[in-house]
Amino acid sequence: MRLLPYGDTAILVDCDSLEEAQGWYNSLSDRAHAVLGARTVLLRGVPSELRSLVGRMSPAEPGRTIPMPTVEIPVIYDGEDLDDVATLTGLSAAEIIEAHTASAWTVAFGGFAPGFSYLVGGDPRLVVPRRDSPRARVPAGSVGLAGEFSGVYPRESPGGWQLIGHTGLSMWDVDREPPALLNPGMTVRFTVAS
């Protein structure tokens, strides 16, 4: 782990892996304003005080999480790439849906767009590459897979994930507190929408 300056009011804890970053986030988030990234934790405050804080701490043990609620996301599994994911994984559409809904996903970190969360912990059979050619427009609520991650597009935007379905839930709402439906550490359960 390295500590890097990040402007006048923050430092960046630069880690070797997502797991290490999650450990630092879990240790520091109740003591400092922390933002989790794929392999980093941004800490906002007085840099000298933050460096001292990090120097007195160690990352939480792997698997230690902050108690967070579970969020259910109902999905209509009608994604444009469902057949492509079936080809890539060797699973039928029904098996993809079963694997996606059977997993307890964890919000690893947010990024890309406000309200977009990278979810980890899914069935390893669902690991698929991003599309060779990204789409110029992915509808809000689209549920996708890319690498080890699953996620829900919070608004219409370009994107290269393999789309397997969509949800009507709002991932980002400025009138909600907090605006993001999903936050690091939360558990997500996808369900088949009725």
Structure description:
There is one protein chain. With 194 residues, the protein is an alpha+beta fold. It has two domains: 2-55, Gyrase A, domain 2; 70-192, Cyclophilin, CATH 2.40.100.10. The protein is built from four helices and 13 strands. A hairpin with a 2-residue loop joins strand 9 (142-146) and strand 10 (149-152). The radius of gyration is 18 Å and the shape is elongated.
Shape category: elongated
Radius of gyration: 18 Å
**CATH homolog superfamily of the largest domain:** Cyclophilin-like
The overall number of domains is 2
Task: Give the tally of β-strands.
Answer: 13
- N-C termini distance: 46 Å
Low-pLDDT regions: none
Strand and helix order:
EEHEEHEHHEEEEEEEE
* CATH arch. level architecture of the largest domain: Beta Barrel
The biggest beta sheet, please? 4 strands, antiparallel
- Strands side by side in the biggest sheet: 1-2-4-3
Mean pLDDT: 91
Question: What is the name of the CATH class of the largest domain?
Answer: Mainly Beta
Number of helices: 4
Strand content: 25-35%
State the secondary-structure class. alpha+beta
Helix content: 10-25%
Secondary structure: elements and pairs:
Elements: E1 2-5, E2 10-14, H1 18-28, E3 33-36, E4 40-44, H2 47-55, E5 70-75, H3 82-89, H4 93-102, E6 105-110, E7 117-120, E8 135-138, E9 142-146, E10 149-152, E11 157-159, E12 162-166, E13 187-192
Parallel strand pairs: 5-13
Antiparallel strand pairs: 1-2, 2-4, 3-4, 6-7, 6-13, 8-11, 9-10, 9-12
What is this entry, summarized?
With 194 residues, the chain is α+β, with helices and mostly antiparallel strands. It has two domains: 2-55, Gyrase A, domain 2; 70-192, Cyclophilin, CATH 2.40.100.
